[in-house]
Design a protein that fits this description.
four-stranded antiparallel sheet, globular, six-stranded mixed sheet, 12 helices, alpha/beta, Rossmann fold
Length: 327
């Protein structure tokens, strides 16, 4: 059974220039105790997908206009504001790509983690106010210790601006995991970090996912990260899922021309003397997207039908007319 099932999700932004069709019928699922990678270049709608799932789209100008987000068989788009607030931070947690921006600069790290504990931890409800605060603070220090911070008591009393990017990201992970969520959404969790810290953060996330039996939606543009950490992958382009499947299956035999282009653009030790291939053109304007397949202006295999008619996700795997409904 799937923990999260996103069906035909459409999110638009209404701007002075026109309607930005950021998500146009996005569908995928995340299995229990599985890690799903959502991949695509900047501007394809990955972060909008995460914000739509958690109902954090700024309204105005954004609006979720269609679709469903089934979490434990409950549609998050239909629950009340009070219910979604109870779910966020407890059952579904999110790690943002810019930890120093996501953390509140005027509160200490410990206070921010403790606030999440006070809001969502059922074990504290029968305690006095003073006991709740003491217990929440103790849990915040333990959460910092679990994510590998050497001096958790000192870090708990520190403000975000006093910490390095890697330390802020560890603190953000502690904040996200302190209530043992069923689903962790990680939006580019290593983007702002240097390479050695990236490896440490990814290893830490893998350890915590095993420890807490959480499912993960990992949003990234880094295919190497997906290959190393994910069970399944969905490739996004211009607000649509254009290919999805098991990681090994997709990496061994990418079907969509866009996925093939992404794979060919990865530097390789074996092919280090060869020039890197690039995908010509740029991401389309989502106010006036191309007709038919949104990738057709950049596709080396384009046919007439590609310009006229939008392909469905053939065989539940790839949205491309090259496959004509069969693998």
């Amino acid at each position: 059974m799937d923990l999260l099932e996103v069906k035909d999700l459409k999110t638009y932004f209404y701007t002075y220039e026109g309607t930005v069709k950021a998500l146009e019928g996005v569908s995928f699922s995340v299995g229990n105790r599985k890690t799903m990678g959502l991949v695509g270049e900047t501007g394809c709608g990955k972060s909008v997908t995460a914000l739509s799932i958690t109902r954090l789209i700024p309204d105005p100008p954004g609006k979720i206009i269609a679709g469903s987000v089934l979490f434990k068989k409950k549609d998050l788009l239909k629950v009340s504001d009070e219910e979604i607030r109870a779910i966020r931070g407890k059952d579904i947690s999110m790690i943002f790509q810019e930890p120093k921006s996501a953390l509140n600069p005027v509160y200490t790290i410990g206070d921010q983690i403790a606030e999440n504990v006070l809001l969502h931890d059922e074990d504290l409800k029968n305690l006095s106010k003073k006991e709740k605060k003491r217990e929440a603070w103790a849990k915040s220090i333990e959460a910092l210790r679990v994510v590998g911070i050497a001096e958790p008591e000192r870090i708990a009393r520190s403000y975000p601006h006093e910490l390095s990017g890697g330390m802020c990201q560890r603190s953000m992970i502690a904040l996200a995991m302190v209530c043992n969520p069923s689903l962790l959404i990680a939006d580019e969790p290593t983007t702002a970090l240097d390479v050695t810290i990236q490896a440490q953060i990814l290893e830490l996330m893998k350890d915590l996912i095993k420890k807490f039996d959480s499912s993960v939606l990992l949003i990234t543009h880094n295919l190497g990260v997906v290959a190393e950490t994910c069970d399944d992958v969905a490739v996004m382009y211009a607000g649509k899922i254009i290919e999805k499947g098991n990681v090994r299956e997709v990496f061994k035999e990418p079907l969509h021309p866009y996925t093939k282009g992404l794979m060919e653009a990865i530097p390789s030790v074996e092919k280090r003397k060869e020039a890197l291939k690039s995908i010509p053109g740029s991401v389309p304007n989502l106010i006036n997207p191309p007709s038919g397949c949104r990738f057709h202006p950049r596709c080396p295999y384009v046919k007439e039908i590609c310009k006229e008619k939008e392909p469905e996700l053939f065989d539940g795997r790839v949205a491309c007319w090259l496959y004509g409904g069969a693998r």
